[in-house]
Design goal:
β6, α6 and β7 form a beta-alpha-beta unit. The chain is of the alpha/beta class and 377 residues long.
């Protein structure tokens, strides 16, 4: 490839261990150590300072090592680039200072073939709808405000209660009794005036309730978890009809789960129901047993645990829209354990194009599980 003004990524320190060995980086797992008795790579790395054009770098190297060819120098830069420690400087590119730390983070994942600014630009061009402003949604909204998408549509029907304040940190004591959408809209406008905020005081009950909100939206975040399972089916059907991706999140007692549906690409939520129906002989019994007790748990929410979950949800959204790193929840449930900080992916499920009644050509009557959803409604 052609390099313009390549540089060692400023996020990594460049330092010697001794006269023959130097390192780029100081973090376990992403530190490059180079044995360099002739100092050629050390010299090259220091010339890659973001100020020198490629011709200046080549001249500096040949001045000290006249035996080197231009191709030798290019090969040296490529070796460092393959180690993940080189990027293009792009001195003419600017952005709002508030997003520079984001761009520095994305630099970790972008080499000299890519553009770290492009990741933030994709975020800035994205229009998001967030369903639910409870323990998950309110904290998701604060993270989104920091990322700076083009617009955020927020949807909720509830009022702020005293019991919310231990985990829904967007709200204050003086907000008790006020509508969440109004408080949240005002808060985000103060946090980031560049974002267009649209607020809807509305309860999601039907597929049509969701569909009418999906105009001019690029991606959905579903942070509604009541009524259990049914609400995810409602949102799932809507996003499949609208062909808009959705990141779903839900919290249990001490764990949370994230999964993402890309309509026409991954399996949808009803495909997951079919997967369980095919492979878990106790699935329907468990579902019916749970439904029959009309379980209404108390609020179970521990702020630090909720933060682990919402961070996973928002990072997954960014992965899906920018691909700065591979998404972790496509066709699988990505689970986060609040107790020990671990995470893992459940077995994946496919898209059942011929059998799913929602995203494929199947029929609801072919699958026993769906009749119990109807009864529950």
């Amino acid at each position: 490839m052609t390099y313009l003004i390549p540089r060692i990524k400023p996020i990594y320190p460049l330092y010697r261990l001794n006269s023959d060995v130097f390192r780029i980086g100081a973090q376990i797992g992403i530190t490059t150590e180079i044995e360099d008795e002739e100092d050629q790579f050390w010299t090259l790395a220091n010339l890659l300072n973001g100020k020198n054009h490629l011709d200046d770098i080549a001249s500096g190297m040949r001045e000290k090592y006249p035996e080197l060819t231009n191709q030798d120098i290019l090969d040296g830069i490529t070796i460092l680039n393959d180690e993940g420690v080189v990027e293009e400087s792009f001195p003419d590119k600017t952005t709002n200072d508030r997003y520079i730390p984001n761009i520095n983070y994305f630099s970790r994942f972008i080499d000299a073939h890519g553009d770290r600014f492009q990741v933030q630009k994709k975020i800035r061009d994205t229009r998001i709808i967030l369903l639910g402003l409870g323990g998950g949604g309110s904290n998701i909204l604060a993270l989104l405000a920091g990322l700076g998408p083009k617009s955020i549509t927020i949807v909720d029907y509830d009022r702020v209660e005293a019991g919310n304040l231990g985990r829904q940190f967007l709200y204050r004591e003086g907000d008790i009794g006020k509508k969440k959408v109004a408080v949240a809209k005002n808060a985000v406008e103060k946090m980031n005036s560049e974002i267009e905020i649209k607020a809807f005081d509305k309860k999601i009950v039907t597929v049509e309730d969701v569909l009418e909100l999906l105009n001019d939206v690029d991606i959905v975040v579903c942070a509604i978890d009541e009524p259990p399972f049914i609400i995810h089916r409602i949102v799932n059907e809507a996003i499949v009809k609208a062909k808009i991706p959705c990141v779903f999140g839900a919290s249990q007692v001490s764990r949370g789960r994230v999964y993402t549906v890309l309509p026409g690409v991954t399996g949808c939520f009803d495909c997951l129901n079919i997967q369980f129906s095919k492979n878990d002989p106790k699935f329907i019994e468990q579902f019916v047993g749970f439904r029959n007790i009309h379980f209404a748990p108390p609020s179970i929410a521990y702020g630090p645990g909720i933060f682990q979950l919402v961070a996973g949800i928002v990072d997954e959204l960014v992965r899906v829209i920018t691909n700065y790193a591979p998404p972790r929840s496509l066709g699988t449930q990505y689970e986060i354990n609040y107790e020990d900080g671990s995470s893992f992916c459940h077995p994946s499920w496919p898209r059942f194009a011929a059998e799913c009644p929602t995203c494929g050509e199947g029929h609801y009557d072919d699958w026993e599980i769906f009749q119990y959803y109807e009864l529950q409604e």
